[in-house]
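Anyone? Bumping this.
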Amino acid sequence: MSQSYNRGLIEDFGRWKEFSAGMWAWIFHKFTGWMLIGYLFTHIAVLSTSVGAAGNEAAIMAESDVYTTTLQGLEGLFLIRLLEVGLLAVAVFHILNGLRLLMVDLGVGLEAQDKSFYASLVLTGAITVASVPTFLTGVSL
Amino acid sequence: MSTQQAEPESQEAPEDPEMKGAESPAAEQQKGGGMVDEQAEKEAELEGETVHIKVFRYDPEVEGKQEPRFDDFHVPFTKGMTVLDSVMYARDEYDSSLTFRHSCRQAVCGSDAFFVNGKQRLGCKTQISDLEQPVRIEPLPHQEVVKDLVVDMDHFYDQMHAVEPYFQDEDTPETDALEEQRQSPENREKIKMSSRCIWCGACMSSCNIAAGDNEYLGPAAINKAYKFAMDDREGEEIKEHRLRILEQEHGVWRCQTQFSCTEVCPKDIPLTEHIQELKREAVKKNLKFW
């Protein structure tokens, strides 16, 4: 063979319509995993910089300490409340699909792996929708 | 090197001796060439009895064909026509330079795995009437294309051989004491599916992990290893040796259970299941309670 042709990544996202259930599960699991890691670090950054009130009893009682004001400020933003719904969806899917993968690892119900993926999607959707009123109306601190 | 074949010949299709038996009168009328000239296109539309296939073309040895492209062929439809039948017709009647591997035509030899309408399928096992038209026929993804639908299988075979796909026995008896090595029906049942592999390479081509990690053994090779590792006739030591190969960095642990291989396997081998079972075997082997 003198020469050959490398077609590269022809099975890339351009072919998303042809992906099967297992493939989608894999993509969503990776995606939600990275989202949760991103959230975790943001979470640590926000909370660790808003504990300035430690020890200041008076400020805490008056609800004017850094921690309370930070959270009240964040919860006051509609965008943040919307993102919380997204965070819940991401976390719930990751948990449910994680359980599915646990079953796959144990060799249980591999022939129903596509159904369990759809089930975790539906359940994620249901839980997310159910959470919308709670999150969007805002939490009173 | 000739440049005359910049375009595939769109010669008139003579009557086909092979497919004649079962074809409809409309199919016989269809004499239009393989190329999409407008007339042929219209003819095909009118008759509704031809199958429109788009075939990936590439030939490094002919100038003007070095740039990959798709050729359209309109093949007269006959009852029971497979994807392989359609490309064979296109080659025999329209463009003799169309190249692809095939041999037994009954899903045993494993030569004709193509990427058909976005999925790895065995050409001879796929009914063309089940597919949406135009039927896109491409070489297997993630393998170098040698010519048209022919891909370089060397890497696939290397991975297959890497798992030592042959029966091994630590103590072969003396020559005069040789006898059959019998397998229990239960054990045979256990490895039955894994023994169906025809080395077509569809699974390896469908696997995203194998595409990104050239050292990954891939589903076919792991399945082949499963066949021997699960065979009771091989001794414990050989099984351990096999698991040592499989539990390496680019062995079973690369599998991320996308189920792509299981999805495309033309022999319906539960590849993911076998890989998962070997993962558990590998863990069990290394677990120590002391």
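Late reply, but here is one note on the structure posted above: Chain B has a mean pLDDT of 83.
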